[in-house]
Amino acid sequence: MGSNFWKSEHSNFLVHRERLIEAHKKDRERGLTYDQIEEVKVFIVLYLEDVAKNSQNLIRQRVAAAACMYFRRFYLKEEFCDYDPRFVGPACLFLACKAEESQVQAKVLFQMLRKVSTTGKYHALPLPDSAQLLDLEMAVLESLEFNLIVYSPYRDLVIFLEDAQMTDLAECAWAVLNDSYRTQLGLLHSPYMMAIACMHVASMVLGRSIQKWLESLTCDMDEVLEIAQELLRCFRQQKNCMSSEACNRYLEFVM
Amino acid sequence: MEKYEKGEKLGQGQFGVVYKARHKETGQIVAIKKIHLGKAKEGINMTALREIKILRELESPYVVRLLDVFPHKRNLSLVYEFLDSDLECLIRDRATIISAADVKSYMQMLLKGLVSCHKHWILHRDIKPNNFLISIAGEMKLADFGLARMFGHPEDGRFTAQVFTRWYRPPELLFGSSCYGPAVDMWAAGCVFAELLLRRAWFPGDSDLDQLGKIFQGLGTPTEANWPGCTSLPQYVDFQPTPAPPLRNTFRQASQDALALLAQMVALDPSRRITAEDALSHQYFRNAPQPTPPAQLPKPPVRAHNPLKLGPRGSSILQAAPAVHTGPGRLNGSSISGAAALHLGPDSSAAQNGTTPADSSAAGASTDGFAAKRQRMADGSVARNVESSEDAPSAGMQREPSPNNTGGPASQFDSREDERRALSDIGFEAGPRPILDGEELGKLRKRKLDWDAPLNGR
């Protein structure tokens, strides 16, 4: 949320695809495939989003989005076998609440986690204890090298929607953007490209054309199309989210 | 931690201890704040996190640099560049003459620091003279981001009004506004400007109500005409209408353009207050005299309000110690004492606490007087560099008999009482500076945290 994204530490976290391929070396040696690793990550991200949704507005979407970014960034360097993602997720959320100026007490966070994980699809997920939460908070901070600012594409989206005079796309584009945190695209592309791609997807969904506006921009159209396709592909794939038992089973491989 | 050679303890904040240290390879002198997390139930505290988050992002020659952060056992260490003194010391030091050109130079650096914050959507929320650190080379940098926060996001919600030290708190916050922007920092900057001109605080209120009284006495009472909407602020109080006296009555020596800028910085209506960027292009900075180049600014005196801070005793050791070679030349001055401090045993540092006039004048007389003064500057003031925000206000408000005031013309003012008496002798009536002790302050901080959080997003 600073003034110049490219001078910000956030831009240093943008990586090339190769970096994603190199990640999780040990986990893969122990038998997990890329797809399975991604499946676990998506599951945890959904878990964090659901915790936020059930927090009675104590944790806002923006905080959950930051937590997801921390989670993804953390596993660029770290591995499931060293840090259990089922515990790292809540630690990211705990940290994001503070970094986004809406601190939630640890005990309140535990209540929320319990509420979400005792019922429904997260029922088999283990919860961290308080010492684990604090240790992992520190581990996340260290792994992120204490860079906590996450540029949010939401602001860009609002500006672009006004510029294109397409405010009727707002709701759909906003929803697409919310869902984009389930993908790893945020690690690969800058926030404003994400915002443009989300508008593009929204226009396809609603059958509107924003071609003219897109052409008036000086951004890389191929990148926009690539992001849009990736988003659509992920949404199709993730219709059937994994179960918490399956998540536990995968992680047993590497623990 | 292995990278640094730990030096003397500089001070103790609510969350940790501050040490002076030297980087083993580069020889750079730094200040390390250790934040103890041992039994904290809530993990890393907000103040530290804000400071880390924001200083990681801000890079400006006018903002203190956070060089490194690392965990060490169950502590978190924050490594800052080392600066010798601060603006409050300078303003309070009666021996120092601050010329009109010097004031302009300080204001320019101050505003540039604020511009970089506001450009990054950061509100500092604790602007006051002792949060502006001054290096031996005369550069002034903004420090202490423990109350700072980001603004400008559509979902921001409400902010707490419990920020700023009272004397620098803008009227809209005193009226309980929870929806504010960079103008709050500009008000405080205006108060610092006035303080540079007057050499005393402009509005030294001793309660929130008294603070408003003093402000309106100086600037006139607000009305719906000069500040639309003010009467509907949550804690608005009616004051007996008073017209604004001309600023000239208070600031007799100041130039016309300086007063014009000041008036715009302390406009009662925050929406009419000048922005930091516009202030920098104000006529004031273009007119003669030119701002003094930083290197030629008056050398800041020591700051030694913190009783834990160690003064320069055992000057023979100090002078015998070899100067450490540092990369950037501007650190040379501090590196001398830094190296010396690292060699001092516990005995000599324990003895440093009660420096008497005789001691320092002896030190000054024995060799080069300037060198000795430089030692004092370097040693006495360092804690301000990294004092956590939680102890900063108290450090700033206590006037204790301090080694820095010894041996010079300033020695006649070595207690608060003396200073006040001296001030009233020359026609100033400064109230006592409010003192907050650690415990009270802790409660205050806690309340602040509680306030910001639950108000958000509801």
Automatic annotation (TrEMBL), chain A:
<dbReference type="InterPro" id="IPR036915">
    <property type="entry name" value="Cyclin-like_sf"/>
</dbReference>
<dbReference type="InterPro" id="IPR043198">
    <property type="entry name" value="Cyclin/Ssn8"/>
</dbReference>
<keyword id="KW-0195">Cyclin</keyword>
<protein>
    <recommendedName>
        <fullName>Cyclin-like domain-containing protein</fullName>
    </recommendedName>
</protein>
<comment type="similarity">
    <text>Belongs to the cyclin family.</text>
</comment>
<dbReference type="InterPro" id="IPR013763">
    <property type="entry name" value="Cyclin-like_dom"/>
</dbReference>
<dbReference type="InterPro" id="IPR006671">
    <property type="entry name" value="Cyclin_N"/>
</dbReference>
<feature type="domain" description="Cyclin-like">
    <location>
        <begin position="46"/>
        <end position="142"/>
    </location>
</feature>
<dbReference type="Pfam" id="PF00134">
    <property type="entry name" value="Cyclin_N"/>
</dbReference>
<feature type="domain" description="Cyclin-like">
    <location>
        <begin position="155"/>
        <end position="233"/>
    </location>
</feature>
UniProtKB/TrEMBL annotation, chain B:
<feature type="compositionally biased region" description="Pro residues">
    <location>
        <begin position="290"/>
        <end position="301"/>
    </location>
</feature>
<protein>
    <recommendedName>
        <fullName>[RNA-polymerase]-subunit kinase</fullName>
        <ecNumber>2.7.11.23</ecNumber>
    </recommendedName>
</protein>
<dbReference type="InterPro" id="IPR037770">
    <property type="entry name" value="CDK7"/>
</dbReference>
<dbReference type="InterPro" id="IPR050108">
    <property type="entry name" value="CDK"/>
</dbReference>
<feature type="region of interest" description="Disordered">
    <location>
        <begin position="285"/>
        <end position="458"/>
    </location>
</feature>
<keyword id="KW-0547">Nucleotide-binding</keyword>
<feature type="compositionally biased region" description="Polar residues">
    <location>
        <begin position="401"/>
        <end position="413"/>
    </location>
</feature>
<dbReference type="InterPro" id="IPR017441">
    <property type="entry name" value="Protein_kinase_ATP_BS"/>
</dbReference>
<keyword id="KW-0808">Transferase</keyword>
<comment type="similarity">
    <text>Belongs to the protein kinase superfamily. CMGC Ser/Thr protein kinase family. CDC2/CDKX subfamily.</text>
</comment>
<dbReference type="InterPro" id="IPR000719">
    <property type="entry name" value="Prot_kinase_dom"/>
</dbReference>
<feature type="binding site">
    <location>
        <position position="34"/>
    </location>
    <ligand>
        <name>ATP</name>
    </ligand>
</feature>
<keyword id="KW-0597">Phosphoprotein</keyword>
<keyword id="KW-0723">Serine/threonine-protein kinase</keyword>
<feature type="domain" description="Protein kinase">
    <location>
        <begin position="4"/>
        <end position="285"/>
    </location>
</feature>
<keyword id="KW-0067">ATP-binding</keyword>
<dbReference type="InterPro" id="IPR011009">
    <property type="entry name" value="Kinase-like_dom_sf"/>
</dbReference>
<feature type="compositionally biased region" description="Low complexity">
    <location>
        <begin position="354"/>
        <end position="372"/>
    </location>
</feature>
<feature type="compositionally biased region" description="Basic and acidic residues">
    <location>
        <begin position="414"/>
        <end position="423"/>
    </location>
</feature>
<dbReference type="InterPro" id="IPR008271">
    <property type="entry name" value="Ser/Thr_kinase_AS"/>
</dbReference>
<dbReference type="Pfam" id="PF00069">
    <property type="entry name" value="Pkinase"/>
</dbReference>
<keyword id="KW-0418">Kinase</keyword>
